[in-house]
Amino acid sequence: MGWPYMGETFQLYSQDPNVFFASKRQRYGSIFKTHILGCPCVMISSPEAAKFVLVTKSHLFKPTFPASKERMLGKEAIFFHQGAYHMKLRKLVLRAFTPEAIRNIVPDIQNIAKDSLLSWEGRLINTFQEMKSYTFNVALLSIFGKDEVLYREDLKRCYYILEKGYNSMPINLPGTLFNKSMKARKELAQILAKILSTRRQTKLDHNDLLGSFMGDKEGLTDDQIADNIIGVIFAARDTTASVLTWILKYLGENPSVLQAVTEEQEAIMRSGEKGDEEKLLNWADTKKMPITSRVIQETLRVASILSFTFREAVEDVEYEGQNSKKAYLTKLPPSYLFACHS
Ligand code: HEM
């Protein structure tokens, strides 16, 4: 369980999480106790036990996160809820990502990608960091449409400080990472309040995620909107950046697949109108990429994107799986979180 309060937070977050899980598994089996981010946790690392918690007995668990993450994202964010409010948020998020909602921003996403490529010229890059920058810009476009340009730099500055504290201990004293993150979180909420107020004054319809959250009928409060905007950036950004990074790695390791993807993409670029200086991608083009799509699907299948996710038992749970000690899932105090490794 590690040191008092700190537990094994440092051991988990200072190295590849798979190394942490592998060494624990070797010592204790696929279910073991630990203590991270100020919370006692049961870590589950076998597919059978993860299926038990996330699928077959999911009604015995509720979604949760350690308190530090909840305070940073905001307690109204979708991840901490169930029932009618959760369903409403799911509907509002999905509405902003239907083909109808995103088809018109394909050329803008292409431009963001082109700007990233240009900015890499002549310098050595850290792929994951660059993918994070790219996905952040795409996230801002999907959330705020083109309105965000004015606020982009401020949003970026605050979000980057906030994310540094995501995996920090929740110690809110001057100078701690957590304290800096909480200040940045407050500033983010202020910027979002400004964007909301400008939108209300202009009264235009918007097809983006903010427009979906602000829909008159939905009746979300400003705090609920802010928590969920920050929540979606959190959910969308590192996950997508991680998939993109894995795709590049796998393509680099498989030259014949890289060749096939390149030919598919070049054929689409050649299909532009004669005389066009450079073809702008459209929605129909994205449907003509069977090889590229399969590479994305296969990467999602093979790579581990989210190392683990958290649940909290709503009542005593009994589980007796292979290689696991029954006691670990039985009669634990309610303060225990269940972290499922994937
Ligand atoms: C390929 C990249 C992505 C992966 C691998 C991924 C993975 C996941 C997983 C595993 C969960 C469930 C977590 C849990 O149950 O504890 C989740 C939830 C969620 N993700 Fe993603 N995600 C990705 C991209 C995105 C994007 C682009 C968005 C933007 C809208 C997004 C929004 C959400 C939201 C809102 C939830 C909460 C859903 C709910 O509570 O019903 N994710 N994601």
From TrEMBL:
It comes from Salix suchowensis. Pfam families: p450 (PF00067). Belongs to the cytochrome P450 family. Keywords: Iron, Metal-binding. This is ABA 8'-hydroxylase CYP707A1. InterPro entries: Cyt_P450, Cyt_P450_E_grp-IV, Cyt_P450_sf. It comes from the Eukaryota. Signal peptide: none annotated.
